[in-house]
Design brief:
Length: 419
């Protein structure tokens, strides 16, 4: 390695004349060298012996970014580290590892790991895999609200006060409901971070969000007729566009009294229309138990029409935006709101149809026992007089009673909407 008295003129004019990398050692500053590649790229390097006597080299940057004087100053700084017992190469590796760890421990990165593990149930101890629809829904809150505001921040640095300010802001700018969903997502992510020993405590634990009052909205007969007619004849409206499959999804939800996600995610393989049965597997129900829904003649007619519009898809309501997969539950809610926008009915959500049907079932109009209604709705709290484990294995429990109830509800529904 030739030694020269490096000058600005020499540095600018130096070339690789051998066709291979050449390195010029500075006579003035010990350990500093100018490297010139065959392609003409010039950079600074610092060579030294560590405390064990091993030869090492670190880069000080390219000539385009670091001048001769700056390179000499950098060499002096690195030699001072050596004199204090520190290894410049080890220091750089540690700094790089810390920077990488810091980047991987941001809210966005930990959140992505959380959602990836949730698919397999590894997002918490003894967890069960989260449903695809659950992950899709919660991931929207994460991507839309959490990442833009908190994504770049370290999970270790976030405090309860910072998170409370974020949640309050979401409630003010959006709605308390959106804020509550964001808190649920953050709670899951930070619980996962505690489990993975990335943090020692969960700062979300004491973050509060405005309590949402329990809805008790039950539609009157006139409101129910207005909603049904709005959905039935929406295709004739010039002001509102709702596809026929979405209109059918709303009607099927009202007829079967099942949850919107269960309706929109309906698979053809779940249906036995000859036996008038719809078997919803446990991985699609809220309580994770298989639920058998007897289908009334009205439900069979509506589902048959929807199947006729679904073409070759495995789903009764295939998404128009994806090659595989059903429409999202939110699509049903959006369609519902568009229909209501042209009617005189206000403050109604799709879930209110389920509450309305249940209320009518237990009323004097039909007189179904509340326990049977809970079976129709697939509520987990009621297992009858038998053991809870029996309710898990006996999928057809109370099937005749459920069929009688849903047939009676369909008949009443038709009387209401045709009046």
């Amino acid at each position: 390695m030739p030694k020269v008295n490096l000058t600005d003129t020499f540095v600018r004019g130096s070339k690789c004349v051998t066709g291979d990398l050449v390195e010029w050692s500075d006579m003035k500053e010990r350990g500093l060298s100018l490297r010139v590649t065959a392609a003409g790229v010039k950079s600074w390097t610092f060579r030294y012996h560590d405390l064990a006597g091993n030869r090492k080299r670190i880069s000080l940057g390219r000539l385009d970014d670091v001048s001769l004087n700056e390179a000499r100053a950098a060499a002096i700084a690195e030699r001072q580290k050596l004199n204090s017992g520190q290894d410049p190469s080890t220091l750089r590796k540690n700094a790089k590892s810390q920077a990488t760890a810091s980047r991987l421990e941001t809210v966005e990165e930990i959140g992505k790991r959380y959602f990836a593990e949730a698919v397999h149930g590894r997002h918490r101890p003894n967890g069960r895999p989260k449903r695809e629809i659950t992950i899709t829904t919660t991931r929207r809150y994460f991507d839309k609200h959490i990442v833009p505001e908190l994504g770049d921040e370290s999970v270790k640095a976030l405090t309860r006060g910072r998170l409370q300010t974020f949640i309050d802001g979401v409630a003010d700018e959006r709605t308390p409901g959106v804020a509550r969903e964001c808190r649920v997502v953050l709670q899951g992510i930070f619980t996962y971070a505690v489990w993975q020993e990335l943090i020692s405590a969960n700062p979300v634990q004491f973050v509060s969000v405005q309590r949402i009052a329990t809805r008790e909205r039950v539609l009157t007969d006139a409101e129910l007729k207005s909603v049904w007619d709005g959905v039935e004849y929406v295709a004739d409206s010039e002001k509102v566009y709702v596809s026929r499959p979405l209109a059918l999804a709303v009607q099927i939800a009202a007829t079967t009294l099942q949850r919107r996600a269960e309706v929109t995610g309906m698979r053809k393989a779940e249906l036995d229309l000859k036996a008038k049965l719809w078997t919803i597997p446990g991985d699609r129900t809220k309580n994770h138990r298989t639920h058998v829904v007897p289908l009334s003649d009205l439900a069979v007619r509506l589902i048959s029409e929807a199947i006729g519009l679904s073409e070759e898809s495995d789903f009764v309501f295939p998404s128009p935006r994806k090659d595989e997969g059903p429409i999202l539950p939110a699509s049903l809610s959006h369609a519902f709101r568009r229909v209501l926008g042209e009617s005189k009915v206000t403050d109604i959500r799709p879930h209110d149809l389920r509450r309305t049907g249940a209320t009518n079932l237990t009323s004097e109009r039909i007189g179904t026992p509340r326990f049977i209604v809970s079976k129709v709705l697939n509520h987990v709290s009621d297992s009858g007089d038998g053991a809870a484990v029996t309710a898990i294995y006996d999928r057809n429990a109370y099937l005749p009673e459920k069929r009688k109830a849903l047939d009676a509800w369909a008949a009443l529904l038709m009387r209401i909407v045709r009046s």
